[in-house]
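task queued by scheduler; priority normal; single chain, no ligands, no partner chains; default sampling; output format set to structure tokens
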Amino acid sequence: QVRLVESGGGLVQAGGSLRLSCAASGRDFSTSVMAWFRLAPGKEREFVAAISWNGGYTTYVDSVKGRFTISRDNTKNMVDLQMNSLKPEDTAVYYCAQKHTSYNFRDLNSYTYWGQGTQVTVSS
């Protein structure tokens, strides 16, 4: 059974930084695709970033390119999201997700496992 636990959320002023972490338990982390999604009030869950099994490929939604960086440590079963230059529109609950298919990285319906989420609030 896979379990994903996010941490690192909080309240930050615009322009600040936060680092989210996702700890994964269970089998096959090192062969999985990992991603971050977010859900803002009144909006649908949105793709933020994803990383391939070995970290060799990453992809981001346009609105966070150059500000967010996804990374993973397969020795620790961890995936992180470094968020810099945060904006009020980044306010959302951020979710970690995992799957084992290496296509459609941005499709939330293709992810098998999800964490409970961590709240990020950016004040103006």
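post-processing summary
- The mean pLDDT is 96.
- The chain is about 0% helix and 50% strand.
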